[in-house]
Design goal:
With about 350 residues, the chain is of the alpha+beta class. It has two domains: about 90 residues; about 230 residues, BirA Bifunctional Protein, domain 2, CATH 3.30.930.10. Helices cover about 40% and strands about 20% of the residues. The protein contains eleven helices and nine strands. It has a seven-stranded mixed sheet, with helices on both faces. Strands 2-3 form a two-stranded antiparallel sheet. Strand 6 and strand 7 form a beta hairpin. The chain is elongated, with a radius of gyration of 38 Å. The N and C termini lie far apart (about 90 Å). The structure holds phenylalanine (PHE). The site of phenylalanine has 11 residues, from strand 8 and strand 9. Phenylalanine binds next to strand 8 and strand 9.
């Protein structure tokens, strides 16, 4: 009996392939296999012999099946390794069926270029660059900025409304709120990003454009600080010393609020068609953060105050490169993009 078992085990272990192993399994463990042979004459045995035989058959069965399973899983993992090897795909190989046109390397969109420049500048002044969602809540886009539902300022920004008090953000100012909520004072942050307004599109209006929000909260922040930062920013962007002035402007989340103008870079202030003979070009809205806005975001206005500004990145790019139609920027037109 032991001989029978040993030779069966050897036959299993000698299988060189999965197919061979399967054939051996049928022979050895199948209906006519060793185990069947061992139980064939059970009826003729005494009770004692039968018990011993039963025990032997059980151990034999375990060792045969164990040997079979071990070899089977080795064949399986070998096969898998082989398959993975053969299925390896080099994603960097250029397609042969659709050869790429010889375009050469791409370049950064002018808005990205100016955005990165301004980010670098503000980082060097200790500001963090924050990101916020484009799908915003009514709370962050309006209420927390002191623009309640019935406030006429809501009509200043034609809004794409979504379901459940959500909307496409109409400005980057909601990121101010998120910055205050998340980081608290003191705070120096900018937030560049896409904003959306439900406007009819023409040479100077787009439904989608770019802004860059800035905010600084600290103790004793003054209009002087605001003007300094804005002058530094604009001199850096236009690569020359600029002269700025403030005019009163209304935004519910700043008090006092301003429109900041720069002296016309074309005529140097003497008057030309670009500045409509005024010598000044309106560039960015800004102001000191309304104490009510601080309070709504959990900041004590008796201890902290700050300034905020909203820079139109799209507008800035158009001024810098003398682009006369805003629609070029999102056109994806290579004739336009290759110039940068
Ligand atoms: N969020 C305002 C807008 O887009 C601009 C702004 C930002 C004004 C910050 C003042 C301070 O119209």
């Amino acid at each position: 009996m032991q001989d029978l078992l040993d030779s069966a085990l050897q036959r299993i272990q000698a299988s060189a392939t999965a197919e061979e192993l399967e054939a051996v399994r049928v022979e050895v463990l199948g209906r006519k296999g060793v185990l069947a042979q061992l139980s064939k004459d059970m009826g003729k045995l005494t009770a004692e012999e039968r018990a011993a035989r039963g025990k032997f058959i059980n151990t034999a069965k375990q060792s045969l099946e164990g040997a079979y399973e071990a070899l089977k899983s080795r064949f399986e993992s070998d096969a898998l390794a082989k398959r993975l090897d053969s299925e390896w795909l080099d994603l960097t190989v250029p397609s042969s069926s659709a050869p790429l046109p010889a375009t050469g390397p791409g370049s950064l969109h002018p808005i990205t270029q100016i955005q990165w420049e301004i980010e670098d500048l503000f980082r060097s002044l200790g500001f963090s660059v924050l990101d916020g969602p484009e799908v915003e809540t009514e709370h962050h886009n309006f209420d927390a900025l002191n623009i309640p539902p019935d406030h006429p300022a809501r009509d200043m920004q034609d809004t794409f409304w979504l379901e459940g008090h959500h909307l496409l953000r109409t400005h980057t100012s909601p990121v101010q709120v998120r910055g205050m909520e998340k980081l608290g004072p003191p705070l120096r942050m900018i937030a560049p990003g896409r904003v959306f307004r439900n406007e009819s599109v023409d040479a100077s209006h787009e439904h989608t454009f770019y802004q860059l929000e800035g905010m600084m909260i600290d103790r004793n922040v003054s209009v002087g600080n605001l003007t300094f930062f804005m002058k530094t920013l604009l001199s850096e962007i236009f690569k020359r010393e600029v002269t700025v002035r403030l005019r009163p402007g209304f935004f519910p989340f700043v008090e006092p609020g301003f429109e900041l103008d720069i002296e016309c870079l074309i005529c140097g202030g003497s008057g030309c068609p670009v500045c409509k003979q005024s010598g000044w070009v309106e560039l960015l809205p800004c102001g000191l953060v309304n104490p009510h806005v601080l309070r709504m975001s959990g900041i004590d206005p008796n201890e902290w105050n700050g300034f905020a500004f909203g820079l139109g990145l799209t507008r800035l790019v158009m001024m810098r490169y003398a682009i006369d139609d805003i629609r070029w920027l999102q056109s994806g037109d290579l004739r336009f993009l290759r110039q940068f």
